[in-house]
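User: Design a sequence. Structure:
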């Protein structure tokens, strides 16, 4: 690390932080350390723009590269030869590699610590969407952590969608609160005792993300599930987790008064408007459009109550419940050995023999259950965690392409018209806010990590109606919280900086600002520009 006159830097990344929750609690006097930091720091709004839709915020930060520079446009890759979608691990070079042994990394998502020789720390301990395989340096660090702090307190709660069970909601909230507390203790020990000689420390708090997705309905009084018995423990849990975060920030400031502090989040959170429509309604619509018959049939228990929100039984899995209603699926999970045996007999000579890259499986997502039909469809829905993503089956690009390149634009027109003909079953309104064509003229410029069309949904459609293809859904919520919040924020507290609001910056500007602060030149190309001169009045 190059010599510079600035203080050493403690970076706290907040994964899944939502300002509306924090502001409400600050008004109640429950977050004194965050309130004090907001008043005493130089702070800027952070705009993640369309890149927010990729779901790769932490890769953008860890590598310092935008999708335009990295070439990766979503967490999902599509194999055009085998018609398989997967979620690859990140192997991109961190922008902080040049910091070397003077940096300590604590559970930062998408941070490939293995590619940074001599840098200490750990990744994939309790991160939400870690993006990388577990790794620590030195080799015995995980064992030391296990001996002093035990295992991560909430391994089964990182993706615990429990709104349908009040007791399970209460337990998940408590587990994540405890995990936040242990993360704070672990961070203090690592930076004060285990690796005290650091110039830069990066820790990311992921429990906020793991909590807001299943617990959002407890905070949002307008949410359709706010009256559910799980809403009260969901709210109490969010409060407890934010209070634990506030204590962590105060403790670290007190323990390292010589360090400058950078606290940031890339964007806000909110109600989930995409799970149901992106993961099952859109795939089913395109399937019916091709084959003129249904694959998913809504069970009577979900469709019998007009204008109501369908419910899951306590303990019932959303994915399993959806798969159970699919007529044909490569990935349907059998409920019995007999069904498993029949499935093996049916599919042994087919898709199960497809070669797959080493990556995170997407078999749990109902949209993957349509993959047996993709090669015979002109357009199909890729698995997606956020907005809808449609891939066209293009000749010369996909192995069994159906759409001639010269008809590419016309094919997208037809798909868009189909989407705009759909109405929300509950409200009768359009389900479309925006249709974005990723490469309007050239299908061969669309990368494997993207679809040809991105759909931003309007409202929170749990069911749709099309005049020709009929009713699809409604279905219960999966996650109640999602990535629909507003701007993020970056706060810097240092002796050399005056408190105040300094406008708005691009989210990609955070990494180069940190690089300039600690005086390093990233080895890889880095997107964005440092905003230090704005803060220092240069």
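Assistant: Done.
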């Amino acid at each position: 690390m190059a010599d510079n006159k600035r203080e050493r830097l403690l970076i706290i990344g907040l994964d899944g932080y939502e300002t509306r929750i924090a502001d409400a609690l600050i008004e109640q006097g429950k977050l004194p350390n965050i309130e004090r930091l907001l008043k005493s720091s130089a702070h800027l709004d952070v705009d993640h723009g369309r890149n927010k839709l990729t779901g790769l915020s932490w890769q953008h930060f860890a590598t310092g590269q935008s999708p335009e520079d990295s070439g990766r446009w979503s967490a999902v890759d599509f194999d055009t030869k085998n018609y398989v979608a997967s979620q690859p691990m990140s192997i991109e070079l961190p922008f902080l590699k040049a910091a070397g042994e003077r940096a300590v990394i604590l559970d930062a998502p998408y941070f490939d610590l293995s590619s940074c020789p001599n840098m200490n720390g750990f990744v994939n301990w309790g991160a939400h969407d870690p993006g990388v395989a577990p790794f620590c340096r030195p080799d015995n660090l995980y064992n030391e952590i296990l001996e002093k702090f035990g295992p991560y307190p909430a391994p089964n709660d990182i993706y615990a969608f429990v709104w349908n069970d009040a007791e399970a909601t209460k337990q998940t909230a408590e587990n994540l609160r405890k995990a936040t507390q242990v993360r704070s203790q672990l961070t203090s020990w690592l930076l004060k005792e285990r690796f005290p000689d650091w110039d830069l420390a990066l820790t990311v708090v992921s429990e906020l993300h793991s909590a807001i997705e299943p617990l959002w309905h407890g905070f949002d009084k307008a949410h359709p599930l706010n009256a559910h018995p799980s809403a009260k423990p969901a709210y109490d849990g969010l409060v407890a987790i934010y209070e634990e975060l506030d204590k962590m920030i105060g403790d670290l400031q007190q323990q390292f008064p010589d360090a400058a502090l950078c606290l940031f989040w890339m964007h806000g959170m909110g109600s989930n408007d995409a799970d149901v429509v992106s993961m099952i309604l859109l795939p089913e619509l395109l399937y019916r459009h091709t084959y003129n018959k249904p694959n998913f049939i809504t069970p009577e228990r979900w469709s019998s109550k007009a204008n109501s929100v369908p419910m899951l039984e306590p303990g019932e899995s959303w994915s399993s419940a959806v798969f159970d209603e699919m007529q044909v699926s490569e990935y349907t999970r059998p409920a019995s050995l007999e069904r498993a045996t029949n499935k093996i007999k049916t599919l042994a000579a087919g898709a199960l023999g497809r070669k797959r890259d080493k990556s995170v499986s997407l078999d749990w997502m109902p949209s993957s259950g349509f993959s047996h039909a993709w090669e015979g469809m002109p357009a199909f829905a890729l698995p997606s965690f956020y907005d809808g993503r449609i891939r066209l089956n293009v000749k010369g690009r996909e192995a069994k392409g159906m759409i001639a390149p010269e008809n590419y634009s016309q094919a997208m027109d037809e798909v868009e018209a189909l989407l705009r003909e759909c109405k929300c079953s509950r409200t009768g309104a359009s389900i479309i806010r925006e249709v974005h064509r990723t490469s309007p003229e050239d299908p061969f410029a669309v990368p494997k990590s993207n679809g040809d069309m991105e759909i931003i949904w309007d409202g929170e459609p749990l069911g749709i109606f099309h005049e020709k293809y009929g009713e699809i859904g409604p279905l219960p919520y999966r996650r109640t919280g999602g990535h629909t919040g507003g701007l993020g924020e970056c706060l810097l507290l240092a002796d050399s900086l005056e408190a105040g609001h300094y406008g708005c910056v691009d989210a990609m500007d955070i990494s180069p600002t940190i690089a300039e602060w600690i005086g390093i030149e990233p080895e890889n190309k880095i997107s964005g520009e440092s905003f230090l001169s704005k803060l220092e009045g240069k």
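Residues 332-357 have pLDDT under 50 and may be disordered. The longest strand covers residues 260-267.
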